[in-house]
Amino acid sequence: MVYLRSEEHVQRWLEANGYEAGATFPATTLNELAAEWWSSRLDPDWRPRSVEESQAILDRLGLTGGFWRLA
Amino acid sequence: MDRFDRDVRRVVYGHVVREGRAPAARETAAEVGCGEHDAAASYRRLHDAHALVLFPDSMEIWMANPFCFTPTPHRVTAAGRTWTGTCAWDALGIPAALHTDGLVETECACCREKLVLEVAGGRLTRGAELLVHFAVPARHWWADIGFT
What we know:
The complex is a heterodimer. Helix content of chain A is 46%, strand content 10%. By secondary structure, chain A is mainly α. Chain B folds into two domains: 3-63, Arc Repressor Mutant, subunit A, CATH 1.10.10; 68-126, Bactericidal permeability-increasing protein, domain 1 (Super Roll), CATH 3.15.10. Helices cover 33% and strands 26% of the residues of chain B. Chain B has helices at residues 3-19, 25-32, 36-48, 88-98, and strands at 53-54, 61-64, 67-68, 74-78, 81-85, 102-107, 114-120, 123-126, 131-134. In chain B, strand 7 (114-120) and strand 8 (123-126) form a beta hairpin. In chain B, helix 1 (3-19) packs across helix 2. Chain B is globular. Classes of the chains: A mainly alpha, B alpha+beta. At the A-B interface, strand 1, helix 1, strand 2 and helix 2 of A face helix 1, helix 4, strand 7 and strand 9 of B.
């Protein structure tokens, strides 16, 4: 899970490392994901999320499709 | 996850926020009021449940996500302290978890150019033009969390 400057840098990084392309998206979307995913982390009454609850977060942010399926 | 393990987890995260580092099992045991062996066993169960990540073959905490306790390219300044984010996602997760503004100093994975992101009021006020890449599909994130 890395930051990159541009699509060109994504492609260069993938080729340099021999990686298959995964998912590329804006840092703004990641910030929204981070807020939804981590904002309850320090809650005194924190409990583990279910897979369904976690999937719903991804779905709400438009992170859908096979790559984003948790199970 | 039973009540004891949730209490251990809560104490671990409280220590991280208060001290800026992960507690040893004996420190957690003292705060929870249990034996060190019991705290260590809880660490192992929390690791198995992906609620903490221990270093391989160790009882030391590597990650209490989004906080990381080994160097990465993702330096986060938030709540008056400098932290290490495990990855791009966790770096932005630190200000989110702390419910505060934050500055992420990181680098482009391709060219290593220094990059800055800033979160203010929950919004990305610097670095909004940047991209993120996740190489590993979601169902495999925990297969090798250090790589993910």
